[in-house]
Write a structure and sequence with these properties.
Blueprint (H helix, E strand, L loop, with lengths): L4 E6 L5 H15 L3 E6 L3 H5 L8 H10 L1 E4 L13 H8 L4 E7 L13 E7 L9 E3 L5 E3 L5 H17 L4 E6 L7 H13 L6 E6 H10 L6 E4 L1 H15 L6 E5 L4 E5 L16 H13 L3 H16 L2 E2 L11 E2 L2 H10 L33 E11 L7 H11 L4 E8 L2 E4 L11 E8 L8 H13 L4 E10 L2 E2 L8
Parallel strand pairs: 1-2, 1-3, 3-12, 5-10, 8-9, 8-10, 13-14
Antiparallel strand pairs: 4-5, 4-11, 6-7, 11-12, 15-18, 15-19, 16-17, 16-18, 19-20
This protein binds nicotinamide-adenine-dinucleotide.
Length: 485
Protein backbone atom coordinates (compact mmCIF):
# COMPACT_ATOMS: atom_id res chain seq x y z
CA UNK A 1 0.00 0.00 0.00
CA UNK A 2 1.25 3.49 -0.90
CA UNK A 3 2.68 5.65 1.87
CA UNK A 4 0.22 8.19 3.23
CA UNK A 5 0.50 11.65 1.75
CA UNK A 6 0.07 14.52 4.15
CA UNK A 7 -2.09 17.28 2.68
CA UNK A 8 -3.30 20.63 3.97
CA UNK A 9 -7.07 20.90 4.28
CA UNK A 10 -9.03 24.14 4.62
CA UNK A 11 -12.73 23.85 5.40
CA UNK A 12 -13.54 27.29 4.01
CA UNK A 13 -16.58 29.49 4.47
CA UNK A 14 -20.30 29.30 3.64
CA UNK A 15 -21.09 25.74 2.50
CA UNK A 16 -17.35 24.97 2.65
CA UNK A 17 -17.37 23.02 5.95
CA UNK A 18 -20.39 20.96 4.86
CA UNK A 19 -19.03 19.93 1.46
CA UNK A 20 -15.54 19.35 2.88
CA UNK A 21 -16.89 17.00 5.56
CA UNK A 22 -18.81 15.08 2.88
CA UNK A 23 -15.79 14.92 0.58
CA UNK A 24 -13.38 13.75 3.28
CA UNK A 25 -15.83 11.06 4.36
CA UNK A 26 -15.80 9.69 0.79
CA UNK A 27 -12.00 9.89 0.52
CA UNK A 28 -11.61 8.01 3.81
CA UNK A 29 -14.17 5.35 2.96
CA UNK A 30 -12.47 4.77 -0.41
CA UNK A 31 -9.12 4.20 1.27
CA UNK A 32 -7.31 7.29 -0.02
CA UNK A 33 -3.79 7.28 1.41
CA UNK A 34 -4.00 10.73 2.93
CA UNK A 35 -3.34 12.43 6.25
CA UNK A 36 -4.91 15.79 6.91
CA UNK A 37 -3.31 18.86 8.32
CA UNK A 38 -6.25 21.16 8.98
CA UNK A 39 -5.84 24.92 8.77
CA UNK A 40 -8.18 27.82 9.33
CA UNK A 41 -8.14 30.45 6.61
CA UNK A 42 -10.69 32.95 5.35
CA UNK A 43 -13.47 34.57 7.37
CA UNK A 44 -12.66 32.74 10.62
CA UNK A 45 -9.01 33.75 10.51
CA UNK A 46 -9.95 37.28 9.55
CA UNK A 47 -12.43 37.63 12.39
CA UNK A 48 -9.83 36.36 14.85
CA UNK A 49 -7.57 39.28 13.89
CA UNK A 50 -5.44 37.89 11.03
CA UNK A 51 -6.02 40.70 8.55
CA UNK A 52 -4.59 38.77 5.58
CA UNK A 53 -6.98 35.87 6.30
CA UNK A 54 -4.09 33.38 6.18
CA UNK A 55 -2.29 32.80 9.51
CA UNK A 56 1.44 31.98 9.49
CA UNK A 57 0.83 28.38 10.54
CA UNK A 58 -1.42 27.88 7.51
CA UNK A 59 1.31 29.14 5.17
CA UNK A 60 3.80 26.86 6.89
CA UNK A 61 1.52 23.84 6.49
CA UNK A 62 0.85 24.57 2.81
CA UNK A 63 4.53 25.13 2.05
CA UNK A 64 5.53 21.94 3.86
CA UNK A 65 2.86 19.64 2.43
CA UNK A 66 2.77 21.27 -1.02
CA UNK A 67 -0.68 19.82 -1.68
CA UNK A 68 -3.86 21.46 -0.51
CA UNK A 69 -7.54 20.62 -0.67
CA UNK A 70 -9.48 23.80 -0.15
CA UNK A 71 -13.18 24.47 0.26
CA UNK A 72 -14.47 27.79 -1.12
CA UNK A 73 -13.70 30.97 0.74
CA UNK A 74 -15.83 34.10 0.92
CA UNK A 75 -14.16 37.19 -0.53
CA UNK A 76 -15.69 40.50 0.51
CA UNK A 77 -16.96 42.53 -2.44
CA UNK A 78 -15.83 46.09 -3.05
CA UNK A 79 -13.73 46.40 0.13
CA UNK A 80 -12.26 44.30 2.96
CA UNK A 81 -9.42 41.80 2.71
CA UNK A 82 -8.03 40.74 -0.65
CA UNK A 83 -9.02 37.43 -2.22
CA UNK A 84 -7.14 34.63 -0.41
CA UNK A 85 -7.66 32.41 -3.40
CA UNK A 86 -5.80 34.84 -5.60
CA UNK A 87 -3.10 35.41 -2.96
CA UNK A 88 -2.50 31.68 -2.55
CA UNK A 89 -2.48 30.93 -6.26
CA UNK A 90 0.02 33.69 -6.90
CA UNK A 91 2.25 33.33 -3.84
CA UNK A 92 2.65 29.59 -4.46
CA UNK A 93 3.21 29.99 -8.21
CA UNK A 94 0.10 27.96 -9.09
CA UNK A 95 0.10 29.24 -12.64
CA UNK A 96 -2.35 26.82 -14.27
CA UNK A 97 -5.99 26.58 -13.31
CA UNK A 98 -7.50 23.48 -14.88
CA UNK A 99 -11.31 23.32 -15.02
CA UNK A 100 -12.92 20.37 -16.78
CA UNK A 101 -16.62 20.88 -17.59
CA UNK A 102 -18.52 17.86 -18.77
CA UNK A 103 -22.21 17.07 -19.25
CA UNK A 104 -23.74 14.05 -17.50
CA UNK A 105 -26.93 13.74 -19.49
CA UNK A 106 -29.49 12.29 -19.32
CA UNK A 107 -29.02 11.97 -15.55
CA UNK A 108 -28.10 15.61 -15.05
CA UNK A 109 -30.06 17.91 -17.31
CA UNK A 110 -28.06 19.86 -19.84
CA UNK A 111 -28.84 21.08 -23.35
CA UNK A 112 -25.47 19.83 -24.47
CA UNK A 113 -25.12 16.07 -24.00
CA UNK A 114 -21.73 15.85 -25.76
CA UNK A 115 -20.14 18.74 -23.93
CA UNK A 116 -16.74 17.73 -22.61
CA UNK A 117 -14.23 20.54 -22.48
CA UNK A 118 -11.47 21.79 -20.24
CA UNK A 119 -10.72 25.42 -19.55
CA UNK A 120 -7.10 26.18 -18.78
CA UNK A 121 -7.13 29.56 -17.10
CA UNK A 122 -4.00 31.63 -16.54
CA UNK A 123 -3.84 31.99 -12.78
CA UNK A 124 -1.22 34.56 -11.75
CA UNK A 125 -1.50 37.64 -13.92
CA UNK A 126 -3.96 39.91 -15.68
CA UNK A 127 -6.23 42.23 -13.71
CA UNK A 128 -5.89 39.87 -10.73
CA UNK A 129 -2.60 41.56 -9.89
CA UNK A 130 -5.03 43.70 -7.91
CA UNK A 131 -2.91 46.82 -8.40
CA UNK A 132 -5.46 49.58 -8.17
CA UNK A 133 -5.24 53.31 -7.58
CA UNK A 134 -7.63 56.17 -7.36
CA UNK A 135 -5.82 58.75 -9.45
CA UNK A 136 -8.20 61.67 -9.48
CA UNK A 137 -11.51 62.34 -7.80
CA UNK A 138 -13.26 60.92 -10.85
CA UNK A 139 -11.00 58.13 -12.08
CA UNK A 140 -9.70 54.85 -10.66
CA UNK A 141 -7.32 52.51 -12.41
CA UNK A 142 -6.61 48.76 -12.34
CA UNK A 143 -3.40 47.56 -13.94
CA UNK A 144 -3.56 44.62 -16.30
CA UNK A 145 -0.18 42.91 -16.37
CA UNK A 146 0.62 40.16 -18.86
CA UNK A 147 4.11 38.68 -19.07
CA UNK A 148 5.74 36.62 -21.80
CA UNK A 149 7.06 33.95 -19.38
CA UNK A 150 3.66 33.72 -17.67
CA UNK A 151 1.92 33.35 -21.02
CA UNK A 152 4.43 30.80 -22.29
CA UNK A 153 3.89 28.65 -19.20
CA UNK A 154 0.11 28.59 -19.44
CA UNK A 155 -0.06 28.10 -23.19
CA UNK A 156 2.50 25.29 -23.07
CA UNK A 157 0.59 23.74 -20.17
CA UNK A 158 -2.59 23.78 -22.28
CA UNK A 159 -0.91 21.97 -25.16
CA UNK A 160 0.77 19.47 -22.82
CA UNK A 161 -2.62 18.89 -21.17
CA UNK A 162 -4.20 18.28 -24.58
CA UNK A 163 -1.44 15.83 -25.48
CA UNK A 164 -1.63 13.95 -22.15
CA UNK A 165 -5.42 13.72 -22.26
CA UNK A 166 -5.76 12.80 -25.90
CA UNK A 167 -7.49 16.07 -26.73
CA UNK A 168 -7.53 17.20 -30.35
CA UNK A 169 -7.87 20.96 -30.28
CA UNK A 170 -6.78 23.97 -28.22
CA UNK A 171 -8.69 27.24 -28.65
CA UNK A 172 -7.14 30.45 -27.40
CA UNK A 173 -9.49 33.30 -26.43
CA UNK A 174 -8.32 36.92 -26.11
CA UNK A 175 -9.48 40.44 -26.84
CA UNK A 176 -6.48 41.39 -28.96
CA UNK A 177 -8.50 43.52 -31.34
CA UNK A 178 -8.74 46.03 -28.47
CA UNK A 179 -5.81 45.21 -26.17
CA UNK A 180 -3.29 44.82 -28.94
CA UNK A 181 -0.30 44.73 -26.60
CA UNK A 182 -1.48 42.73 -23.57
CA UNK A 183 -3.90 40.29 -25.21
CA UNK A 184 -1.84 40.59 -28.38
CA UNK A 185 1.16 39.12 -26.54
CA UNK A 186 -0.96 36.19 -25.31
CA UNK A 187 -2.19 35.47 -28.85
CA UNK A 188 1.28 35.83 -30.36
CA UNK A 189 2.83 33.41 -27.84
CA UNK A 190 -0.07 31.00 -28.44
CA UNK A 191 0.68 30.98 -32.20
CA UNK A 192 4.38 30.42 -31.50
CA UNK A 193 3.90 27.57 -29.01
CA UNK A 194 1.18 25.91 -31.14
CA UNK A 195 3.81 25.22 -33.82
CA UNK A 196 5.56 22.85 -31.39
CA UNK A 197 2.41 20.68 -31.26
CA UNK A 198 1.56 20.02 -34.91
CA UNK A 199 -0.71 17.08 -34.08
CA UNK A 200 -3.06 19.36 -32.09
CA UNK A 201 -5.38 21.76 -33.91
CA UNK A 202 -4.96 25.32 -32.68
CA UNK A 203 -7.36 28.18 -33.24
CA UNK A 204 -8.12 31.60 -31.79
CA UNK A 205 -11.38 33.41 -31.04
CA UNK A 206 -12.09 36.88 -29.75
CA UNK A 207 -13.39 36.36 -26.21
CA UNK A 208 -16.81 37.97 -26.75
CA UNK A 209 -17.86 35.78 -29.65
CA UNK A 210 -15.93 32.87 -28.07
CA UNK A 211 -18.07 33.15 -24.91
CA UNK A 212 -21.24 33.40 -27.01
CA UNK A 213 -20.30 30.25 -28.94
CA UNK A 214 -19.40 28.54 -25.68
CA UNK A 215 -22.85 29.28 -24.26
CA UNK A 216 -24.62 28.31 -27.49
CA UNK A 217 -22.57 25.40 -28.80
CA UNK A 218 -20.09 24.16 -26.18
CA UNK A 219 -19.73 20.79 -27.86
CA UNK A 220 -17.48 22.36 -30.51
CA UNK A 221 -14.78 23.08 -27.89
CA UNK A 222 -12.12 20.76 -26.55
CA UNK A 223 -9.43 22.64 -24.58
CA UNK A 224 -9.69 26.41 -24.11
CA UNK A 225 -6.74 28.47 -22.91
CA UNK A 226 -7.31 32.05 -21.87
CA UNK A 227 -6.33 34.91 -19.60
CA UNK A 228 -7.21 34.98 -15.92
CA UNK A 229 -10.37 37.13 -15.96
CA UNK A 230 -11.90 35.64 -19.11
CA UNK A 231 -11.14 32.16 -17.76
CA UNK A 232 -12.86 32.98 -14.48
CA UNK A 233 -16.01 34.11 -16.25
CA UNK A 234 -16.27 31.43 -18.93
CA UNK A 235 -15.55 28.55 -16.56
CA UNK A 236 -18.62 29.44 -14.49
CA UNK A 237 -20.67 29.64 -17.69
CA UNK A 238 -19.31 26.30 -18.88
CA UNK A 239 -19.87 24.58 -15.50
CA UNK A 240 -23.42 25.90 -15.28
CA UNK A 241 -24.48 24.87 -18.79
CA UNK A 242 -22.89 21.46 -18.31
CA UNK A 243 -25.42 20.87 -15.52
CA UNK A 244 -24.57 22.89 -12.43
CA UNK A 245 -21.83 25.09 -11.13
CA UNK A 246 -21.90 22.65 -8.19
CA UNK A 247 -20.38 19.83 -10.25
CA UNK A 248 -17.04 21.13 -11.49
CA UNK A 249 -13.67 20.58 -9.82
CA UNK A 250 -10.63 22.72 -10.32
CA UNK A 251 -6.89 22.16 -10.01
CA UNK A 252 -4.38 24.95 -9.42
CA UNK A 253 -1.05 23.61 -10.56
CA UNK A 254 2.45 24.97 -9.99
CA UNK A 255 5.91 23.48 -10.25
CA UNK A 256 6.32 23.33 -6.45
CA UNK A 257 2.79 22.95 -5.12
CA UNK A 258 -0.81 22.31 -6.14
CA UNK A 259 -4.19 23.26 -4.72
CA UNK A 260 -7.46 21.51 -5.49
CA UNK A 261 -10.92 22.96 -5.03
CA UNK A 262 -14.40 23.35 -6.53
CA UNK A 263 -15.06 25.84 -9.31
CA UNK A 264 -17.91 27.44 -7.37
CA UNK A 265 -17.82 29.80 -4.43
CA UNK A 266 -18.96 29.58 -0.81
CA UNK A 267 -22.68 29.82 -1.75
CA UNK A 268 -23.65 31.89 1.32
CA UNK A 269 -27.31 31.77 0.23
CA UNK A 270 -27.54 28.06 1.10
CA UNK A 271 -24.88 27.84 3.84
CA UNK A 272 -25.80 25.86 6.95
CA UNK A 273 -28.77 24.15 5.29
CA UNK A 274 -26.93 20.94 4.43
CA UNK A 275 -28.13 21.03 0.82
CA UNK A 276 -25.00 22.07 -1.15
CA UNK A 277 -23.70 19.68 -3.78
CA UNK A 278 -20.31 18.31 -2.68
CA UNK A 279 -19.52 17.08 -6.23
CA UNK A 280 -17.43 20.10 -7.25
CA UNK A 281 -15.06 19.67 -4.32
CA UNK A 282 -15.14 15.89 -4.71
CA UNK A 283 -14.12 16.25 -8.37
CA UNK A 284 -11.32 18.57 -7.23
CA UNK A 285 -10.26 15.86 -4.76
CA UNK A 286 -10.32 13.24 -7.54
CA UNK A 287 -8.00 15.46 -9.61
CA UNK A 288 -5.75 15.64 -6.53
CA UNK A 289 -5.64 11.84 -6.17
CA UNK A 290 -4.68 11.50 -9.85
CA UNK A 291 -2.01 14.17 -9.37
CA UNK A 292 -0.64 12.19 -6.41
CA UNK A 293 -0.61 8.95 -8.42
CA UNK A 294 -3.43 7.39 -6.36
CA UNK A 295 -5.27 6.57 -9.58
CA UNK A 296 -6.95 3.41 -8.30
CA UNK A 297 -8.76 5.27 -5.49
CA UNK A 298 -9.55 8.14 -7.88
CA UNK A 299 -11.18 5.69 -10.27
CA UNK A 300 -13.10 3.98 -7.48
CA UNK A 301 -14.54 7.27 -6.22
CA UNK A 302 -15.35 8.67 -9.64
CA UNK A 303 -17.13 5.50 -10.74
CA UNK A 304 -19.16 5.39 -7.51
CA UNK A 305 -20.02 9.06 -8.03
CA UNK A 306 -21.12 8.43 -11.64
CA UNK A 307 -23.24 5.50 -10.43
CA UNK A 308 -24.86 7.75 -7.82
CA UNK A 309 -25.76 10.30 -10.51
CA UNK A 310 -27.08 7.51 -12.73
CA UNK A 311 -29.21 6.18 -9.88
CA UNK A 312 -30.89 9.58 -9.74
CA UNK A 313 -29.68 10.45 -6.25
CA UNK A 314 -29.30 14.18 -6.60
CA UNK A 315 -28.80 17.30 -4.54
CA UNK A 316 -31.24 20.18 -5.07
CA UNK A 317 -29.15 22.02 -7.69
CA UNK A 318 -29.43 19.11 -10.16
CA UNK A 319 -32.68 17.52 -8.94
CA UNK A 320 -35.28 17.25 -11.69
CA UNK A 321 -38.72 15.68 -11.46
CA UNK A 322 -38.86 12.76 -13.90
CA UNK A 323 -35.07 12.31 -14.04
CA UNK A 324 -34.05 12.17 -10.40
CA UNK A 325 -35.24 9.41 -8.08
CA UNK A 326 -34.35 11.00 -4.74
CA UNK A 327 -33.56 14.50 -3.53
CA UNK A 328 -30.80 14.39 -0.93
CA UNK A 329 -28.73 16.74 1.18
CA UNK A 330 -24.94 17.07 1.21
CA UNK A 331 -24.12 14.27 3.65
CA UNK A 332 -26.77 11.90 2.35
CA UNK A 333 -25.30 12.33 -1.14
CA UNK A 334 -21.87 11.46 0.25
CA UNK A 335 -23.30 8.36 1.92
CA UNK A 336 -24.87 7.30 -1.38
CA UNK A 337 -21.47 7.60 -3.06
CA UNK A 338 -19.83 5.64 -0.22
CA UNK A 339 -22.45 2.89 -0.55
CA UNK A 340 -21.50 2.54 -4.24
CA UNK A 341 -17.72 2.40 -3.80
CA UNK A 342 -16.53 -0.60 -5.82
CA UNK A 343 -19.43 -0.34 -8.28
CA UNK A 344 -19.16 0.87 -11.85
CA UNK A 345 -21.65 3.06 -13.70
CA UNK A 346 -23.83 1.14 -16.13
CA UNK A 347 -24.76 3.90 -18.56
CA UNK A 348 -21.81 6.27 -18.32
CA UNK A 349 -18.47 4.96 -19.50
CA UNK A 350 -16.56 3.89 -16.40
CA UNK A 351 -13.52 6.03 -15.68
CA UNK A 352 -10.09 4.52 -16.16
CA UNK A 353 -6.94 6.44 -15.22
CA UNK A 354 -3.49 5.53 -16.49
CA UNK A 355 -1.61 4.42 -13.36
CA UNK A 356 1.69 5.45 -14.95
CA UNK A 357 0.65 8.98 -15.95
CA UNK A 358 2.86 11.67 -14.49
CA UNK A 359 1.74 15.20 -13.62
CA UNK A 360 2.31 17.62 -16.49
CA UNK A 361 5.58 19.49 -16.17
CA UNK A 362 6.25 22.80 -17.83
CA UNK A 363 9.51 24.69 -17.53
CA UNK A 364 9.09 28.09 -15.94
CA UNK A 365 12.55 29.33 -16.87
CA UNK A 366 12.07 32.50 -18.93
CA UNK A 367 13.32 32.31 -22.51
CA UNK A 368 13.40 36.10 -22.85
CA UNK A 369 15.71 37.63 -25.45
CA UNK A 370 16.39 41.22 -24.54
CA UNK A 371 16.09 43.67 -27.43
CA UNK A 372 17.40 47.21 -27.72
CA UNK A 373 15.09 49.42 -25.71
CA UNK A 374 14.87 53.08 -26.67
CA UNK A 375 13.00 55.83 -24.82
CA UNK A 376 10.96 57.85 -27.31
CA UNK A 377 8.81 59.90 -25.02
CA UNK A 378 6.58 59.86 -21.99
CA UNK A 379 2.87 59.91 -21.20
CA UNK A 380 2.25 62.21 -18.26
CA UNK A 381 -1.13 61.80 -16.57
CA UNK A 382 -2.50 64.99 -15.13
CA UNK A 383 -5.30 65.69 -12.66
CA UNK A 384 -6.95 68.83 -13.97
CA UNK A 385 -10.22 70.01 -12.50
CA UNK A 386 -11.47 72.81 -14.65
CA UNK A 387 -15.16 73.52 -14.73
CA UNK A 388 -15.27 73.90 -18.52
CA UNK A 389 -12.84 71.05 -19.26
CA UNK A 390 -11.74 72.64 -22.48
CA UNK A 391 -8.87 70.49 -23.82
CA UNK A 392 -7.33 73.51 -25.55
CA UNK A 393 -6.80 75.18 -22.18
CA UNK A 394 -4.76 72.30 -20.75
CA UNK A 395 -3.09 71.68 -24.14
CA UNK A 396 -1.87 75.26 -24.57
CA UNK A 397 -0.87 75.43 -20.91
CA UNK A 398 1.30 72.32 -21.21
CA UNK A 399 2.93 73.52 -24.44
CA UNK A 400 3.90 76.71 -22.63
CA UNK A 401 5.48 74.69 -19.81
CA UNK A 402 7.12 71.81 -21.73
CA UNK A 403 10.69 73.17 -21.99
CA UNK A 404 13.06 72.42 -24.85
CA UNK A 405 13.55 68.66 -24.99
CA UNK A 406 10.08 67.09 -25.17
CA UNK A 407 7.05 68.52 -26.95
CA UNK A 408 3.38 67.81 -26.32
CA UNK A 409 2.12 65.56 -29.14
CA UNK A 410 -1.42 64.96 -28.02
CA UNK A 411 -3.78 64.67 -25.08
CA UNK A 412 -6.34 61.94 -24.65
CA UNK A 413 -9.16 61.64 -22.15
CA UNK A 414 -10.02 58.02 -21.31
CA UNK A 415 -8.06 57.01 -24.40
CA UNK A 416 -9.68 59.33 -26.96
CA UNK A 417 -7.67 62.13 -28.53
CA UNK A 418 -9.01 65.53 -27.45
CA UNK A 419 -6.02 67.77 -28.28
CA UNK A 420 -5.03 69.01 -30.76
CA UNK A 421 -8.19 69.02 -32.80
CA UNK A 422 -10.59 66.96 -30.65
CA UNK A 423 -14.35 66.84 -31.12
CA UNK A 424 -16.50 69.07 -28.90
CA UNK A 425 -18.87 66.11 -28.37
CA UNK A 426 -16.24 64.04 -26.52
CA UNK A 427 -16.98 63.83 -22.81
CA UNK A 428 -13.98 64.58 -20.61
CA UNK A 429 -13.17 63.61 -17.03
CA UNK A 430 -10.56 65.17 -14.73
CA UNK A 431 -7.92 62.59 -15.86
CA UNK A 432 -5.76 63.68 -18.82
CA UNK A 433 -3.13 61.56 -20.56
CA UNK A 434 -0.60 63.93 -22.09
CA UNK A 435 1.86 62.45 -24.59
CA UNK A 436 5.26 64.10 -24.87
CA UNK A 437 7.75 63.06 -27.54
CA UNK A 438 11.26 64.23 -28.42
CA UNK A 439 11.41 67.59 -30.18
CA UNK A 440 14.37 66.39 -32.27
CA UNK A 441 14.04 62.81 -33.47
CA UNK A 442 17.84 62.40 -33.43
CA UNK A 443 18.18 63.19 -29.71
CA UNK A 444 18.69 60.44 -27.18
CA UNK A 445 16.19 60.64 -24.38
CA UNK A 446 17.12 59.37 -20.96
CA UNK A 447 15.30 59.51 -17.68
CA UNK A 448 16.87 62.81 -16.62
CA UNK A 449 14.95 64.44 -19.47
CA UNK A 450 11.72 63.02 -18.06
CA UNK A 451 12.60 64.40 -14.63
CA UNK A 452 13.33 67.77 -16.25
CA UNK A 453 9.94 67.74 -18.00
CA UNK A 454 8.16 66.86 -14.76
CA UNK A 455 10.01 69.67 -12.99
CA UNK A 456 8.86 72.10 -15.67
CA UNK A 457 5.26 70.95 -15.36
CA UNK A 458 5.42 71.05 -11.56
CA UNK A 459 6.82 74.60 -11.60
CA UNK A 460 3.98 75.68 -13.86
CA UNK A 461 1.48 74.25 -11.39
CA UNK A 462 0.36 71.09 -13.22
CA UNK A 463 -0.63 68.21 -10.92
CA UNK A 464 0.91 65.11 -12.53
CA UNK A 465 -0.25 61.84 -11.05
CA UNK A 466 1.75 59.27 -12.96
CA UNK A 467 3.94 58.65 -15.97
CA UNK A 468 4.27 55.83 -18.48
CA UNK A 469 7.38 55.72 -20.62
CA UNK A 470 7.14 55.27 -24.37
CA UNK A 471 9.68 52.73 -25.55
CA UNK A 472 10.54 50.98 -28.75
CA UNK A 473 12.10 47.50 -28.69
CA UNK A 474 14.44 46.93 -31.65
CA UNK A 475 12.47 49.66 -33.38
CA UNK A 476 9.06 48.08 -32.66
CA UNK A 477 6.60 50.46 -30.97
CA UNK A 478 5.91 49.32 -27.41
CA UNK A 479 2.82 51.37 -26.64
CA UNK A 480 -0.62 51.92 -28.08
CA UNK A 481 -1.71 54.92 -30.08
CA UNK A 482 -4.51 57.14 -28.80
CA UNK A 483 -7.95 56.55 -30.32
CA UNK A 484 -8.06 59.02 -33.17
CA UNK A 485 -4.26 59.65 -33.05
P1 LIG B 1 -21.20 30.86 -5.73
O1 LIG B 1 -20.54 29.93 -6.68
O2 LIG B 1 -20.84 30.72 -4.31
O3 LIG B 1 -22.79 30.71 -5.88
C1 LIG B 1 -23.49 30.97 -7.08
C2 LIG B 1 -24.84 30.26 -7.05
O4 LIG B 1 -24.63 28.85 -7.23
C3 LIG B 1 -25.57 30.40 -5.72
O5 LIG B 1 -26.95 30.47 -5.96
C4 LIG B 1 -25.25 29.12 -4.98
O6 LIG B 1 -26.22 28.71 -4.07
C5 LIG B 1 -25.12 28.12 -6.13
N1 LIG B 1 -24.12 27.09 -5.79
C6 LIG B 1 -22.78 27.24 -5.77
N2 LIG B 1 -22.20 26.10 -5.40
C7 LIG B 1 -23.18 25.21 -5.17
C8 LIG B 1 -23.18 23.87 -4.74
N3 LIG B 1 -22.06 23.21 -4.47
N4 LIG B 1 -24.38 23.26 -4.59
C9 LIG B 1 -25.52 23.90 -4.86
N5 LIG B 1 -25.58 25.18 -5.28
C10 LIG B 1 -24.42 25.84 -5.43
O7 LIG B 1 -20.89 32.32 -6.26
P2 LIG B 1 -21.08 33.74 -5.54
O8 LIG B 1 -22.38 33.78 -4.81
O9 LIG B 1 -20.79 34.72 -6.58
O10 LIG B 1 -19.89 33.83 -4.50
C11 LIG B 1 -20.02 33.61 -3.10
C12 LIG B 1 -18.69 33.84 -2.44
O11 LIG B 1 -17.75 32.86 -2.85
C13 LIG B 1 -18.06 35.19 -2.76
O12 LIG B 1 -17.51 35.72 -1.58
C14 LIG B 1 -16.97 34.85 -3.75
O13 LIG B 1 -15.91 35.77 -3.72
C15 LIG B 1 -16.55 33.49 -3.26
N6 LIG B 1 -15.88 32.64 -4.27
C16 LIG B 1 -14.89 31.83 -3.84
C17 LIG B 1 -14.28 30.96 -4.72
C18 LIG B 1 -13.18 30.07 -4.23
O14 LIG B 1 -13.00 29.95 -3.02
N7 LIG B 1 -12.42 29.45 -5.10
C19 LIG B 1 -14.70 30.90 -6.06
C20 LIG B 1 -15.77 31.71 -6.47
C21 LIG B 1 -16.36 32.58 -5.55
Amino acid sequence: MAEKQRITVAHGDGIGPEIMKATLSILDAAGAQLEYDEVKIGEQAYLSGVTSGIPDEAWESIRTNKIMLKAPITTPQGGGYKSLNVTMRKSLGLFANVRPCKAYTPYVESNFPNMDLTIIRENEEDLYAGIEHQQTEEVVQTLKLISRPGTESIVRYAFEYARANNRKKVTCMTKDNIMKHADGLFHKVFDQVAKEYPEIEADHMIIDIGSAKLADDPERFDVIVTLNLYGDVISDIAAEIAGSVGLGGSANIGTEAAMFEAIHGSAPDIAGKGIGNPSGLLNGAIMMLVHLGQTEVAEKIENAWLKTLEDGIHTGDIYKEGISSKRVGTQEFAEAVIARLGQKPEKFTPRVYDPNAKPIEVSRIPTTTYRKKELLGVDVFIDWKDYNRNPDTIGNGLVAAQGDFFKLKMITNRGVKVFPGGLPETFCTDHWRCRFVKQNEGDTAINDKVVELLNNLYSAGWDFIKTEHLYSFDGERGYSLGQGE
